[in-house]
Design a protein that fits this description.
Order of helices and strands: EEEEEHEHHEHEEEEEHEEEEHHHH
Number of strands: 16
Strand content: 25-35%
Number of helices: 9
CATH architecture: 4-Layer Sandwich
Length: 316
């Protein structure tokens, strides 16, 4: 049976100083690709990272520039579709592995948009390749251009304290980065230490995203990272899109994980004991671990369980 492999592992911190680990190291997987998703919406991938851009008669709306190595090729890909300028760049969050490289767009006059906490983060922890936003917002912001739009929603801290999700119209597709994945929400967290994640708000955040999906009739999401599958012994890149149900699945992942940890702690397990007890628990393996279809490793699950137990024991 083929297993889906989630490619977040290529985005780990040791590579942050030199840019993303590029997919040319994977036989048969091209370094970059651009997919036409319809309605003027395109998905662009460079290495394991993906963003979206919207082409209109009046210009282009771009999301995360990724880094300087990716932004140049992305600009070239945009030029293959339209000769219109890039008018806006929208940040999904403030992490350097998605937010660097915007100068090429700033130089052609683009306005940069970000949730207000992202601006604070970029000022307090500056990076020479990160362009500061021109416009900030609190909860919701709509970029409109040439009859198309990109709507940004903020529901509090999640992965980063300024993470937003985006709805591209008229395609009516949700772009979600680092908190969800296409084609499934049942993936192992790529970095179980999760120093950049706010556990107390993960479930409420995902519920809020689910509400947007339902309210707007969204059926499709675009994932911010490359996913792979194994076909006939070879790695194959999956499409950039997947069903919107993946958001609900990710919320179920967190709810079930919290439930098992609380159950052990209520039975008397200490924070230190929880990981080993749950990994040895057959019910946990059957009901939780066996659902995970991307990137499961036992040592990483141990770290994740320890972090969740610490959160439950101490709160925010």
């Amino acid at each position: 049976m083929n297993r889906i492999l989630y490619f977040f592992a290529l985005c780990l911190l040791p590579f942050a100083s030199t840019g993303p680990v590029h997919a040319q190291f994977i036989p048969g997987i091209p370094l970059m690709e651009t997919e036409d998703l319809g309605g003027g919406l395109y998905a662009f991938r460079y290495g394991p990272y993906r963003n979206i851009f919207i082409v209109t008669d009046e210009g282009v709306i771009v999301t995360d520039p990724i880094d300087a190595k990716a932004a140049g090729p992305m600009r070239e890909e945009i030029a293959k579709v339209t000769d219109r300028p890039v008018k806006y760049v929208a940040y999904s969050h403030s992490h350097w592995d998605h937010a660097r490289g915007g100068k090429i767009f700033k130089d052609e006059g683009a306005q940069f948009i970000a949730q207000e906490k992202c601006a604070n983060n970029m000022i307090e922890t500056p990076h020479p390749e990160v362009v500061l936003p021109d416009v900030t917002f609190e909860d919701r912001y709509k970029i409109e251009l040439g009859g198309s739009s990109l709507e940004l929603y903020y529901f509090g801290p999640s992965h980063d304290d300024c993470m937003v999700v985006m709805v591209a119209r008229p395609a009516n597709i949700l772009f979600v980065i680092d908190i969800g994945s296409a084609p499934t929400g049942w993936f192992m967290e790529y970095n179980p230490t999760m120093s950049d994640a706010y556990l107390y708000n993960m479930v409420p955040y995902l519920r809020a995203v689910e509400a947007v999906v339902e309210q707007e009739g969204i059926e499709t999401i675009v994932s911010g990272h490359l996913s792979l599958t194994i076909d006939d012994g070879k790695l194959v890149a999956l499409a950039s899109t997947g069903p919107a149900v993946a958001i609900r699945e990710k919320r179920e992942f967190w709810e079930m994980l919290y439930g098992f940890v609380r159950q052990e702690m209520e039975a008397g397990a200490s924070v230190d004991d929880v990981p080993a007890k749950l990994i040895a628990n057959q019910e946990f393996q059957d009901e939780f671990v066996d659902h995970i279809r991307q990137g499961y490793e036992e040592d990483e699950m141990w770290i994740l369980l320890r972090r969740v137990a610490s959160y439950i024991a101490s709160g925010r």
